Amino acid sequence: MAGNTFGNFFKLTTFGESHGEAIGGIIDGCPSGIPLDLEAIEAEMSRRKPGQSSIVTSRKEPDTIRFLSGIFEGKTTGTPIGFIIENTNQKSKDYSHIKDTYRPSHADYTYDKKYGVRDYRGGGRSSARETASRVAAGAIAKQFLKGITCNAFVSSVGEIFIDKPYQDLDFSKIEDTPVRCPDLDTAEKMISRIKEIKKDGDTIGGTVTCVIKNVPVGLGEPVFDKLHAQLGKAMLSINAVKGFEFGSGFCGAKMKGSEHNDQFNADGTTKTNLSGGIQGGISNGMDIYFRVAFKPVATIMKIQKTIDSQGNMLEMQGRGRHDPCVVPRAVPIVEAMASLVIADFMLANRLTKA
Amino acid sequence: MAGNTFGNFFKLTTFGESHGEAIGGIIDGCPSGIPLDLEAIEAEMSRRKPGQSSIVTSRKEPDTIRFLSGIFEGKTTGTPIGFIIENTNQKSKDYSHIKDTYRPSHADYTYDKKYGVRDYRGGGRSSARETASRVAAGAIAKQFLKGITCNAFVSSVGEIFIDKPYQDLDFSKIEDTPVRCPDLDTAEKMISRIKEIKKDGDTIGGTVTCVIKNVPVGLGEPVFDKLHAQLGKAMLSINAVKGFEFGSGFCGAKMKGSEHNDQFNADGTTKTNLSGGIQGGISNGMDIYFRVAFKPVATIMKIQKTIDSQGNMLEMQGRGRHDPCVVPRAVPIVEAMASLVIADFMLANRLTKA
Amino acid sequence: MAGNTFGNFFKLTTFGESHGEAIGGIIDGCPSGIPLDLEAIEAEMSRRKPGQSSIVTSRKEPDTIRFLSGIFEGKTTGTPIGFIIENTNQKSKDYSHIKDTYRPSHADYTYDKKYGVRDYRGGGRSSARETASRVAAGAIAKQFLKGITCNAFVSSVGEIFIDKPYQDLDFSKIEDTPVRCPDLDTAEKMISRIKEIKKDGDTIGGTVTCVIKNVPVGLGEPVFDKLHAQLGKAMLSINAVKGFEFGSGFCGAKMKGSEHNDQFNADGTTKTNLSGGIQGGISNGMDIYFRVAFKPVATIMKIQKTIDSQGNMLEMQGRGRHDPCVVPRAVPIVEAMASLVIADFMLANRLTKA
Amino acid sequence: MAGNTFGNFFKLTTFGESHGEAIGGIIDGCPSGIPLDLEAIEAEMSRRKPGQSSIVTSRKEPDTIRFLSGIFEGKTTGTPIGFIIENTNQKSKDYSHIKDTYRPSHADYTYDKKYGVRDYRGGGRSSARETASRVAAGAIAKQFLKGITCNAFVSSVGEIFIDKPYQDLDFSKIEDTPVRCPDLDTAEKMISRIKEIKKDGDTIGGTVTCVIKNVPVGLGEPVFDKLHAQLGKAMLSINAVKGFEFGSGFCGAKMKGSEHNDQFNADGTTKTNLSGGIQGGISNGMDIYFRVAFKPVATIMKIQKTIDSQGNMLEMQGRGRHDPCVVPRAVPIVEAMASLVIADFMLANRLTKA
């Protein structure tokens, strides 16, 4: 369990460093007979990739997926789907200055201590480039989940946030702005804020909210593998994530039971949905929604003090092309991971009854 | 992967319903040669068990653990540790009135839909009684983790919260009050609030904060099994939990990189610790700290409208002996799950280098 | 993966030493809604238990199973089935003489070296007593597999073997003799041979053959988890097993392709069945059959030289009540493990198609 | 657990069909800091690949491995090792005649029934081409296992077998002949036999014996994951395998305890080694040896009757370039799988003691 596999039934195993030859993965457990729309997969990849707009990194990576197995005549065959994404734009020299340097709040120090060695050309395995494999696999999971929709969007950037319940938002507007906030007034403010931050050589955090609709009743396993526990793990495994809450979340901790309980309608739906579509770890058929907190990107263009591997203090300044705010590009990653979790539980649920 | 096992190396599998014959579990993977202090295990059990004080349920459960295997002459043998806790105080009749009724914001409806059958005597497998097995296993993990300390405490009840950083708290005072808040002034307010809520037949939520000290550098696996992702899953698997954040958490999402980055000292420690002791999913040797949100208990003594399994609307009122606020008893459960996660990664880490 | 769990979907985890308080296990993944015939389970337990006849050990163990969870109103609930079997007849003193002694061809030496400690009262975890938990779980798997029949029988004892294909045997006669050989003439010879061996203070090996009928086409996973690979692992995990072959087995290695290939009938069945019901690791609907080799029991009543834990040479003689030949009691264990494998793949197969 | 992963700690997941774009895999769990000799890996690949001699298939596949990650500056980094092997010599048209035909004793029928679809160009996932990925991973495992030697050789072809204990063989001669039998007189007879069989358009089975030396005491997990149970599963997962035996094997089933028990020397070694280096599922430091039975290759050049997917009877004749006897090329595959098993348990063993 070296930590590079996600899922129990619809399983993704990934490999690859940011500056190695290629990244990629194997999806094992995808059922046979699913027609795959390869263009839709490429479209998801494009949402994640760098260089899309002025508020994200200007780095260019084509991120073309090459599927090597498990697909025949346009359909999945039930055998493992192997895929690779070549690293064509490695620019290793951008990173040579940090060979012996531990960047503050990066994984340089911890990887070096853990493994006794690290690929110092970029973040190696801890680079967000690894998430490209997740988006590829998540795009296949989405196609398996036909009918279940999974929409993530940026709900805050720094102190700027959407001041409306998600029910009042039009998800078709998520892609209308590069910041992926469907509330267009708020989106404008967010974009201005990110540009300001970027000009300042700084970075800023934010949150992504995700809403999953049409999930059947009964997904999730009791006790340790509760539906929201797996969703939480999935989200917390994304780079830069610091927190996860679903349904009423941290606000729920301030409430009384008489306010918080969701009263039933006769058909088993509930009048309110503070449960966030999950009761006792199992989906109840209502919308599942959750919120994910991302810290500001650690690479800033300002001068910082830090240490090298011998413990010498030195000054460094971020170089290269980095995101001033990670949340717009995190949106498709959140959707990918959520789709993988739901696909996994859809399969798990086939095992429940005699 | 039916969801009743936690951990990859120090593995706990649990069984048991609240009103069955017994609950229990198997710990598989605990190394041989660990001297076990059985009294310390019982002491942990006592912290979780009901009937401890006037602010928790008055239900009495002796919660005596019977170890059946894996321990010989006071030490672990490396073989699986089987244990059971008899259900001596079942009082099934307390629950007969809910046989066909789905209690609002409980797992009754979702279990019934998922499995097509449920043990209607109490919460069955979704009852918090299951957590007794976790506390037993966590107590053994704690003994394996000699030197690493794991302290949880109640950091808020409803709107009342500790307004100090954890560094200013004296953890030796956690057990001084039944509410398990080490800030004694705040503890008093919390206790008053819980009593008020109880008198009103209502319940209230709260948060638990946990601090783990002396964790070696290097724990956690990259990518999917990041240290905080497993901690998050562990916490979200506890009944009534709605959210998890570590280090800067949701506040971090509002910050700038220049504020958020933790500057290194020459020895690899950091001047600040917004990272929460984890960078890139791997421990960096600083304190690990996180916060867990618990919703108010769903069973209230007020009359509520609900439905039965035929979809008939009816009124119900909670009976029996329930907790007005779950967080004081959740403290040892949070510690148990955190200890299991750390124990698991301590073993995993033995596999890292050649 | 400390090796005490079997199966991926219908999972059994066992615990318990021969001379501890109890043995038992947890079945996790058994679907809900299966009516359980508890008497049928006890009947399987009786087939395995010692003291059944003059050709097996005279040790008495009641082997009563106590189910603790996962069953409600006569049916499985889908939650884990916990069970224990108390060790009521421990007679620890029988073993005190071997506290520091390594019995030849037992696991004493290897356990001691591996763990640095062992429960020297009997075989501890390596005792065949552990298989009682397997039989209990296998009996539940059998009930899940309604319609699929799994019959094992003794096919040889020492040099005496059944000289007929299994198709010519009447499985209803398996239980007619204590040796569990359905060919009654051969059974007589086997019984005489075992009595002779017993009188001599010696032991003897043998083989068990198992035939599984009515397995649907399509069970087994490609590549590593082939149906026969899991069956082989299951059998090789039983105490004293030295070999496994299925279909043509080792004889197949002497054959030519033109002799060995199974020609199809128009309906997909095959005229011959040298494949043993499995092609490419996947069941083809024909009978699955395999043969398992058991070595002679290592505990003999003759004087043997051996060593103690300090490397001193000494003489020892088996005491207590041991089986002169293990195969008659191995029959229900082989069936139990085979049933667990088939149950596991029946569940796995639900995941195959879209 | 879709069956494409082997191992619990040193884990290999493979993908790829014989006529897809590429095959490959991910090794997850290989420790950091192992210097890798890439030429030694290529040498192992050459031993398995087709076209080596006149007694194996004349098909040419360059089998060049491309490592994509997990290796930096000549050493493993502890992150997953991704690799691919392009399928450059696909010749799909060779197989068009079998699109709707089920070849006798192949996996065509069972795959089609299981998945409802199959890549009919060659054996797809059930092709022995998949084993190239195993050899690649096994070659890395071998380098991790420095000092432990693992030698397999052909011990029989049809009725011709080596009539000597393995101790009398000179393993340095294994590669002296294309049949990989170190007893050169027997090797000559085997080669003649295979040539005769090939001329006749037929195929023949055989056995491979494997000897592992210098295994430390203590490898193997009790109960289900016994060392020989995992070795058996590993071998039975190789294409065309019908049986596995270790130590005394099936012969042991004919013996008496007084003959079979291995007497100890004072240093814990044993005078005889009928145990095959494993007692109670755990290595005892003596040589581990086992034997694997391979059936004759199912593709023969003779005319056979068979059916198509509509159940029509038809005649077919093998075409293309196939092995008349699979065992010579199976030798490196047996070694690879054995090395993966031992590597896995070497890691597992790090978890045993406190």
TrEMBL record, chains A, B, C, D:
This reaction introduces a second double bond into the aromatic ring system. Its cofactor is FMNH2. Reduced FMN (FMNH(2)). The lineage of its organism: Bacteria, Pseudomonadati, Bacteroidota, Flavobacteriia, Flavobacteriales. GO terms for cellular component: cytosol. Its EC number is 4.2.3.5. Belongs to the chorismate synthase family. It catalyses: 5-O-(1-carboxyvinyl)-3-phosphoshikimate = chorismate + phosphate. FMN binds at residues 125-127, 239-240, 280, 295-299, 321. Homotetramer. GO terms for biological process: amino acid biosynthetic process; aromatic amino acid family biosynthetic process; chorismate biosynthetic process. This is Chorismate synthase. InterPro entries: Chorismate_synth, Chorismate_synth_AroC_sf, Chorismate_synthase_CS. NADP(+) binds at residue 48. CDD domains: Chorismate_synthase. The gene is aroC. Keywords: Amino-acid biosynthesis, Aromatic amino acid biosynthesis, FAD, Flavoprotein, FMN, Lyase, NADP. GO terms for molecular function: chorismate synthase activity; FMN binding.
